[in-house]
Amino acid sequence: MMRVAASLPALALLAALGACSVGPDFRPPDPPSAATYLVDPQNPDLVAAGIPGGEAQKIVESLDIPGQWWGVFQSPQLNNLIERALVANPDIKATAASLKIAQLNARAQRATLFPTIGLALGASQNQVAPILQSPLTSQNSIFGLFTAGLTLTYALDIWGGNRRQIESLESLAEQQCFQLEGAYLSLASNVVAAAILEASLRAQVEATRRIIAAQRETLGILQRVSGLGAIPGADVATQQAALAQAETTLPPLEKALAQQRNLLANLTGRTTNDPVAERFTLSDLKLPAELPLSLPSRMVEQRPDVRAAEANLHSAGALVGVAISNQLPQITLSVGVGTTGIGTDALFGPTQTSTNVGGSLLQTIIDGGALAAKKQAALAGLEQAEAQYRSSVLNAFRNVADTLNALEYDAITLKAAVEAERAAASSLAIARRRLELGDTTYVFVLIAELTYQQTQITRIQAQAARLTNTAALFQALGGGWWNRDGADTGARSQRSRCHAPTAAPAPGYITSKTTPPQLSAR
């Protein structure tokens, strides 16, 4: 009997290994067939604006993305800030903890592939009525009873339900891994965007202060000339109103700059009373000469959000197999060894030991349609996951296309803004000289000042837009996480489950031979 009991786990393991897995087998979805993102071919060269921060850029197809992509801006301050943010940001820590939970859940489910061994120990003090015959040879009415038992149970995974559940949970862990990578990418991109906006606002504040100073100077000229009776007092009042109007534009810019500083503190895990030391100006950030552009088939493998949607699709397909297996017979094998004695010294005597070997088969016959409904729900979940994956791919395409359009047209905008600013500055200088000589009226000077103010602010905003678009392209293409060693995040082990992009994804879902035809996931 003991030999049979010892051989049952091995036989069960062999049976499970040879078992099939019902439900659809997963293959990564087909890659996009499109070769470009835009209808018209993209111009690989972005025009230069002729100023620092407005250099020409070239789009290079199939250029790989560095892991620390923000280094292309050549700003040590920005590099340090992002590295600190990736370590200290609480949202990153929360997402990393979610990954750990998913990994441990998958590990726990993998234990279902192995037998479960349990040990039971018991001890009790018993008393029988003296009038009754004692069941013991000693005829004592009070006696102790000790028991010990060892049980081994194993659920045969004949239909692969446990394996499909493991597959689903491992896919969810993969999804969480890509969500963590997406959180890293979003955080780094948000810090870059916040630094660029801070630099832009700081430049706008400084430009507005110069404009206010110039208008005060103009007001002083008008007041002197008005004192001589050369111009009417109405012109002085008009300039005073224009100066007051310019002064009202400064507080909103200063407010936005202060709020941007608060945002940088928040992104780096600091409270707002402990601001970051780094201060950014547009001159601190350099435009990279070359910009990468991945093929669409490569882009969908690089984007963490698309890969997370693919992992969710994998999980949903595996759950279909789980639902099918639950409708089929469930077989469990068990082996038990127990012993009973009135003393611990007699507990393991040769005559005290008992064994049992058994098995059970459970097949649901009537359940009110619950299992059938769960199977249909799993199929609907698979359909939902397929649609969500398709949506994520479409959004990724639009994201890259929008960024390419922004790169092209914002480069043209900056070039035009620089030319307009230069022309407005020249016009203002001429108008002021003519006003001092009494060769023109104040109205022309005021118009020239307002024009110059607007062109200067427009140029600053356009200059910042080119930097922002550059960062947006790196984010839209996935951020280069597959080239990062993990040293910047302190999360090497947390990233170990993320699979790097491959050269050519396999076709979409196929149906296993054990899946009924109506359960095809295509």
Description of the structure:
The chain is α+β, with helices and mostly antiparallel strands. The protein has a single domain, classed as Outer membrane efflux proteins (OEP) (Up-down Bundle), CATH 1.20.1600. Helices cover 54% and strands 12% of the residues. The chain contains ten helices and nine strands. It has helices spanning 2-17, 76-88, 90-110, 161-227, 233-248, 250-267, 296-302, 304-325, 370-436, 442-476, and strands at 24-25, 45-46, 57-61, 116-127, 142-156, 290-293, 330-341, 353-362, 510-511. The protein has a four-stranded antiparallel sheet, covered by helices on one side. Helix 4 (161-227) runs antiparallel to helix 10 and helix 9 (370-436) packs antiparallel against helix 10. The longest helix has 67 residues, at 161-227. The model is unreliable at 1-8, 490-496 and 504-522 (pLDDT under 50).
Give descriptors for this structure.
522 residues, Outer membrane efflux proteins (OEP), elongated, 9 strands, alpha+beta, 3-stranded mixed sheet
Largest sheet: 4 strands, antiparallel
* Alpha-carbon Rg, integer: 37 Å
Q: How many helical elements?
A: 10
Percent of residues in helical segments?
40-55%
Question: Using DSSP, what is the number of strands?
Answer: 9
Which CATH architecture would you pick? Up-down Bundle
The topology string of helices and strands comes to: HEEEHHEEHHHEHHEEHHE
Strand content: 5-15%
Q: Which ranges are low-confidence, i.e. pLDDT below 50, for 5 or more consecutive residues?
A: 1-8, 490-496, 504-522
CATH fold group: Outer membrane efflux proteins (OEP)
Apparent shape:
elongated
- What is the CATH domain class? Mainly Alpha
Strand order, sheet with most strands: 4-5-7-8
Given helix and strand content, the structural type is alpha+beta
The total domain count is 1
CATH superfamily: Outer membrane efflux proteins (OEP)
Overall mean pLDDT score?
A: 84
